[in-house]
Design brief:
The protein is mainly alpha-helical and 546 residues long. Helices cover 60% and strands 5% of the residues. Keywords: Cell membrane, Glycosyltransferase, Membrane, Transferase, Transmembrane, Transmembrane helix.
Length: 546
C-alpha cells in the first residue's frame, strides 16, 4: 500500500467509517424494527397529507407545530419526511430515511467537530467510529424519532461555530450563520433541544466572548438569524399547545409533591413546629430532590450498560452503551480533566455532558433514553480520549490494539446479533407489530360489513389505519379529519372505520360489524376470522364478527 500517501489515510479511514455507519443504518431499514410505532406513523401520514394537500391531518395549513396526539410535535422532522415520501412513496423506509441519513451525517460531523476541538485526527476518527457503532445512536437512527436528528444539528452547529471562531474576514459570517441556522433548526427538531440548545449556545458565546467582540461586524447576519428563530419559537412555546405539552410531561404538572408538603407542614403545626415546617417543607423547594434524583438517574450504570428504560429503546441484553465502553469512558474523563487538552475544548465537552439530561430531568419516567440521547457524542469522545491516551502510555502498542479491538468486536457482534435476530422476535409487541397486517386484512373484507370498529386499545389505531391503507388525505379532510390526538379519543373515523372501545355484544347487534381488537376484548360468542400473531408466536390482534 506504499502507493497511498501517508496523509491520505485519515481520509480513507473516515470514508470507511462513514460507509460502515451508512450500512448499519440503512440495511433492512424498513424491516427492522419490525413495525412503525405511533409517532412514526404520525410523521408519515402527516407528511403524506402535507404532500397531497398542504395541510396536516387536522386540516392546519403548513403548521409550525404538529398537533398529532396532542403532544404537539416540532415540525422539522415531519417536513423532512415529505420529500422522502415523494421519492419513495408512503413506506416504512421513507419515513425512517431522514433519521438514518442524519444519523450518518452526525458521524461525519462528529469527526469534524472533535477535530476542531482537539486538533487530533486519531481522537476524531475514534469518536466517529464509536458513534457509528453506538447501540444508542443506531437504535434511534433507524426509527423516525426527532431526538436523533437533534443530535445531528447540535454537532453541526458546534462545529460550524468553532470554524467561525478560527476564521477571518467574510468566512466568519458564513460559519457563524451556518451555526445559527443549525442551532435554530434544532429548536424546531425536538422538545428537549429547546432547553439544551440555548444553554449550550450561551456557554459557547461566553467562552469566546473576546473573540466575538473583535469580529462583531461579521455577526450581524448570524444574530438576525438567531433573533428570527426566537421570534417564531416564543409564541409557540408560550401558546396553549406549548403549555399543554409541558404540563403533560413535566413533573411540575403533578401537584402531589405540593400536597405531600402541605401534609408535612400540617403535621409540624400539630406538633407546634409550624415555622420550621414552613422552612423545611417550603412548596418552592419540594421539587428539588425530585429534580436531583431525575438528573442523577441518567448516570445509572444499569440504565446505560444493561437495560436502558423500555424495550423500544434497546436490543435485548444490550444497554445504550457497550460494556466495553465503561473503563475507557472513565479513563477518558480522568485524562480530559488532568492532561493538557485545550481548556476551552474541555469546557465544551463537559458542558455538553452536564447539560444533556437537564431537560429530561424535569419530566416523569426517567431515566429516558430518547429524551437524553443528546448526550451523544460525549460518551464516544470520552471513550476515544481514554483509548488514545492509554495507547500512548503502553509499551506494547500492537498487543493493546489487538486486545481492545477484539473486545470491541466481540461486543459489537453480540449487539449486531441481538438487534437483527432477537429484537424483532422478543420485542415485536413493544413495536406494536400487527397493525399493518390487521389494517390490510380488515380492508380486504370491509365490503361485507356496514362498519368496522377498531379498538382504541390498539393505541392510536386511526393513525395506523390511515397510514397503512394510504388513505387519501383530501378525502380524509373532507370527512372531517382527525378530531383529537388524545389517547382517550373515541370520535375518529373515516370510510367505514370507527375507532372506539369495543363492547362486542352490544355493538354486534346494532349493525353488521367487523371488529378489530385485542384478544381480551372478545368473548365466546365472537366468530374469529383471523388471528394476527406477534413474532414470538403470541396472539396480538383478533379480527372477528358475530
Amino acid at each position: 500500500m506504499t502507493f497511498i500517501k501517508k496523509n491520505y489515510w485519515p481520509t480513507i479511514l473516515l470514508a470507511c467509517i462513514i460507509f460502515l455507519a451508512a450500512f448499519l443504518r440503512f440495511w433492512h431499514l424498513g424491516q427492522n424494527p419490525p413495525s412503525l410505532d405511533w409517532d412514526e406513523t404520525a410523521h408519515g401520514y402527516n407528511a403524506y397529507s402535507i404532500l397531497k394537500t398542504g395541510k396536516d391531518e387536522y386540516g392546519y395549513k403548513s403548521p409550525l407545530s404538529f398537533r398529532s396526539f396532542d403532544d404537539y410535535k416540532p415540525p422539522i422532522y415531519t417536513y423532512l419526511v415529505v420529500p422522502s415520501v415523494a421519492v419513495f412513496g408512503l413506506t416504512d423506509f421513507a419515513i425512517r430515511f431522514p433519521s438514518a441519513t442524519l444519523g450518518v451525517l452526525a458521524v461525519l460531523f462528529t469527526y469534524l467537530m472533535v477535530y476542531e476541538l482537539f486538533k487530533n485526527k486519531v481522537i476524531a476518527l475514534l469518536s466517529a467510529l464509536f458513534l457509528a457503532i453506538s447501540p444508542w445512536h443506531l437504535q434511534f437512527s433507524r426509527v423516525a424519532f426527532e431526538t436523533n436528528s437533534a443530535t445531528f444539528w447540535s454537532v453541526l452547529a458546534t462545529w460550524a461555530f468553532l470554524r467561525g471562531i478560527r476564521s477571518n474576514g467574510a468566512k466568519v459570517a458564513f460559519w457563524m450563520s451556518l451555526s445559527s441556522l443549525a442551532f435554530g433548526a434544532n429548536l424546531f427538531m425536538y422538545h428537549n433541544a429547546r432547553v439544551f440548545t440555548p444553554l449550550l449556545a450561551i456557554i459557547l458565546l461566553f467562552l469566546f466572548k473576546r473573540k466575538l467582540l473583535s469580529i462583531k461586524k461579521y455577526l450581524i447576519v448570524p444574530a438576525l438569524i438567531a433573533i428570527l428563530f426566537s421570534i417564531v419559537l416564543i409564541p409557540i412555546v408560550t401558546s396553549v399547545s406549548g403549555r399543554l405539552r409541558f404540563e403533560g410531561t413535566s413533573i411540575f404538572g403533578d401537584a402531589s409533591p405540593l400536597y405531600k408538603a402541605s401534609q408535612l407542614i400540617a403535621q409540624d403545626e400539630a406538633n407546634h413546629q409550624l415555622l420550621i415546617g414552613k422552612i423545611l417543607h417550603n412548596r418552592r423547594l419540594v421539587y428539588i430532590p425530585i429534580l436531583v434524583n431525575n438528573y442523577l438517574s441518567h448516570l445509572n450504570p444499569t440504565f446505560l450498560f444493561f437495560t436502558a428504560d423500555m424495550d423500544r429503546h434497546h436490543a435485548p441484553q444490550i444497554g445504550l452503551l457497550y460494556l466495553w465502553d465503561l473503563p475507557f469512558i472513565i479513563c477518558g474523563i480522568y485524562f480530559l480533566l488532568s492532561k493538557k487538552f485545550p481548556p476551552k475544548s474541555k469546557v465544551i465537552v463537559f458542558a455538553w455532558f452536564l447539560l444533556a439530561p437537564v431537560a429530561s430531568s424535569v419530566t416523569w419516567g426517567v431515566p429516558h433514553a430518547l429524551r437524553s440521547e443528546i448526550y451523544l457524542p460525549t460518551y464516544q469522545i470520552f471513550a476515544s480520549i481514554g483509548v488514545y491516551t492509554l495507547y500512548t502510555y503502553t509499551k506494547h502498542k500492537k498487543l493493546f490494539v489487538l486486545t481492545i479491538g477484539l473486545a470491541l468486536l466481540a461486543n459489537f457482534l453480540f449487539y449486531f446479533h441481538q438487534y437483527w435476530v432477537h429484537m424483532p422476535i422478543q420485542y415485536s409487541q413493544a413495536w406494536l407489530y400487527g397493525r399493518k397486517q390487521a389494517a390490510i386484512f380488515s380492508d380486504s373484507i370491509k365490503t361485507n360489513y356496514d362498519r368496522v370498529i377498531v379498538s382504541t386499545k390498539l393505541e392510536q389505531p386511526h393513525e395506523f389505519w390511515l397510514y397503512y391503507l394510504k388513505y387519501d388525505p383530501k378525502k380524509y379532510l373532507a370527512e372531517g379529519g382527525t378530531v383529537s390526538g388524545g389517547f382517550l379519543e373515541t370520535r375518529n373515523k373515516f370510510d367505514k372505520y370507527l375507532f372506539k372501545p369495543i363492547d362486542f355484544e352490544k355493538q354486534a347487534g346494532e349493525a353488521k360489524t367487523l371488529f378489530v381488537g385485542l384478544p381480551s376484548e372478545f368473548g365466546q360468542n365472537a366468530h374469529i376470522l383471523k388471528i394476527i400473531y406477534y413474532l414470538n408466536g403470541e396472539p396480538a390482534i383478533y379480527i372477528a364478527d358475530k
